[in-house]
Design a protein that fits this description.
The protein is an all-alpha fold and 214 residues long. The chain has eight helices and no strands. It is globular and about 55 Å long.
Length: 214
């Protein structure tokens, strides 16, 4: 799938690829010293032991939850919810899809439930604006934080369906067929949602930049 080239998307991609630049929408992995799985590992199901899935895909699930809008203060609970479902349903995994796309589908449903509860309470969970890399000076950190705030608000302007496609395409660099498999939608739907998501994101970003001024 061709990369987006507009200003907001270009800045988003640039920040997301800079080490430590964005804690929610970046290539940053889950913190080291990950918690031990809080569910007992079942026997191997379909040839895939639970502990192997947990250890190999913990970082991916963590990134997915954060990129889909789960706040870092809530991500541990959301991770637990995802892996409880994985534990319960692992014996149903028949290898018809990749583990990565199967796990993303579970993470997406958990995120939807979480965000629905937050909205019901009238809350909002923005992406963190902290810059993890200690190397930049105060001015650069402040500029990055300001830009991250704009990108966060532009990303939050996407509806959940478009946001999921956007995250998988722009950040996880999945192909359209992989995204269709992960979301359980038709290939044409992926292309349509991604096109609209890119437009929505760029429109929202441009509007926010205009509000902020030069």
């Amino acid at each position: 799938m061709p990369p987006a080239t507009h200003e907001g998307l270009t800045l988003f991609a640039g920040l997301s690829q800079a080490p430590g630049a964005m804690s929610a929408a970046s290539q940053r992995v889950a913190p080291e010293g990950r918690p031990a799985a809080r569910v007992e590992a079942p026997p191997a199901a379909g040839g895939v032991p639970f502990e192997l899935v947990y250890n190999d895909y913990f970082d991916f699930v963590w990134r997915s939850l954060r990129r889909l809008g789960v706040a870092e203060s809530s991500v541990e609970d959301a991770l637990q919810d995802v892996f409880v479902v994985v534990h319960r349903r692992l014996d149903e995994f028949g290898g018809r899809s990749s583990l990565k796309t199967w796990l993303f589908g579970i993470a997406l449903r958990v995120t939807h439930d979480h965000r629905r509860r937050v909205r019901r309470k009238g809350g909002h969970e923005p992406l963190d604006e902290a810059v993890a890399d200690p190397a930049p000076g105060p001015q650069e950190r402040a500029a990055n934080a300001e830009m991250i705030g704009l990108l966060d608000r532009a990303l939050d302007a996407l509806d959940d369906d478009r946001r999921a496609v956007f995250v998988l395409a722009e950040l996880e660099q999945m192909s359209a067929p992989e995204i269709a498999e992960a979301l359980g939608v038709k290939l044409n739907t992926v292309y349509s949602r991604l096109r609209l998501a890119r437009q929505d994101f760029e429109r929202a970003f441009a509007g926010l930049r205009h509000q902020e001024g030069p």
